[in-house]
Specification:
Elements: H1 23-33, E1 38-39, H2 48-58, H3 64-84, E2 92-97, H4 105-114, E3 119-125, H5 128-141, E4 150-151, H6 154-157, E5 168-172, H7 182-194, E6 201-207, H8 212-218, H9 225-241, E7 250-252, E8 255-257, E9 262-269, E10 273-277, E11 282-286, E12 291-298, H10 302-309, E13 314-321, E14 327-334
Parallel strand pairs: 1-12, 2-3, 2-5, 3-4, 5-6
Antiparallel strand pairs: 6-14, 7-9, 8-9, 9-12, 10-11, 13-14
The structure holds S-adenosylmethionine.
């Protein structure tokens, strides 16, 4: 165990210097690890190591989501733009929430550039590393394209959407919505709608419900990259909040219930142990086999999505799927 401070029982760890702490991260970790059952927010996966690991996940043979959505955007961008009701002469803003490295979006941008569409591309991401990689990828694929990246939490950036009257197309790809429970997803789509004007659109990437034998390996790959991605959350708490998680004493334990259609990722304590976290001045006890819930990934069908959208002001008006029907990009319109 990498001990930052000596421990005995539940004694209070030595505090850290306040000016070195990401307060919001510390607060959320404290709330999550003192709750029952324990949980950590998936948004903290994406520090620079986590973003690099996620880029590796997208390349894994088991992670079918990337190939499926890439295929949709490569092959169906002209039809998607038609359904979005955007034509060459229509100036619009293309705002992408949780843009990541932009590899899939570039396929849509290539179509827009070739067709001389008049638009501003505004990718938003909480991770600077992801935005740096996205800029690099866009420079390589489309050297003349200027973009306006914004770093920040998309929950907090939704209000900025109503700053201009230009028609908007919001991209929310990669089944990012699936990381929210249905009631939160409903609230998120509603806040998005509240900040859009009638006729604005959302292109929403969603992973579709399917057999566990296809879904589960995407969250538990044979090379252990998804394991490292999940465990990096504990490593990040060690690095940034002065904790002493023993990474060998926790395992990556994803589950998928086919009926419910939700993958759940956990970190499971393999023994009775205590972990001290200096930034919050607490020692957290773990029982053998106690789990920390770190992420959900919801799988969708038309009925589930329509239920989530009911009463939000957004209506499904189109659907594009890959050839295996693994993934769908839905088009939604603000009424
Ligand atoms: C699952 S990746 C998907 C990336 C990309 N949309 C794609 O489909 O490949 C999630 C991305 O969203 C970003 N992200 C996660 N939570 C966020 C939040 N609350 N605000 C802004 N970005 C966030 C992460 O940094 C990461 O780049």
């Amino acid at each position: 165990m990498s001990s930052a401070s000596p421990k005995s029982g539940l004694e209070t760890p030595e505090p850290m210097q306040a000016d070195h702490i990401n307060e919001e991260f510390a607060w959320e970790v404290e709330a999550g690890l003192t709750a029952s059952p324990k949980r950590l927010s998936s948004k903290y996966f994406y520090d620079s190591k986590g973003s690099a690991l996620f880029a590796q996940i997208m390349d894994l043979p088991e992670y079918y989501l990337t190939d499926a959505e890439l295929e949709i955007l490569k092959e169906q961008s002209p039809a998607i733009m038609d359904r979005l009701g955007i034509y060459r002469e229509t100036p619009f803003e293309l705002v992408e929430l949780g843009a990541g490295d932009g590899v899939k979006t570039i396929e849509l941008l290539k179509h827009l550039e070739a067709g001389d569409y008049r638009y501003r591309y505004v990718p938003i991401d909480i991770s600077q590393q992801a935005l740096n990689q996205l800029e690099k990828n866009i420079r390589a694929a489309l050297p003349n394209k200027q973009i306006q990246p914004k770093k920040g939490d998309y929950f907090k950036k939704l209000g900025e959407l109503s700053d201009s009257d230009t028609p908007k197309v919001v991209l929310f790809l990669g089944s990012n919505l699936g990381n929210m429970k249905d009631d939160r997803a409903h609230g998120f789509i509603k806040s998005l709608a509240d900040n859009l004007a009638p006729g604005d659109k959302l292109l929403l990437g969603t992973d579709l419900m399917k057999d566990a034998s296809i879904v589960l390996p995407a969250y538990n790959d044979s090379q252990g990259v998804t394991r490292d991605f999940n465990l990096n959350l504990l490593e990040r708490i060690n690095r940034e909040l002065g904790a002493d998680f023993d990474l060998d004493a926790f395992t990556h334990a994803p589950e998928y219930d086919e009926k419910e259609g939700i993958t759940k990722s956990y970190l499971r304590s393999e023994k009775d142990q205590e972990v001290s976290i200096r930034a919050i001045g607490k020692t957290i006890p773990f029982q053998r086999h106690e789990k920390i819930h770190t992420e959900i990934s919801r799988k969708y069908n038309d009925a589930i999505l329509e239920d989530i959208c009911r009463g939000t002001g957004m209506k499904v008006i189109g659907k594009f799927t890959d050839h295996r029907d693994y993934f769908a990009d839905y088009v939604l319109e603000k009424a």
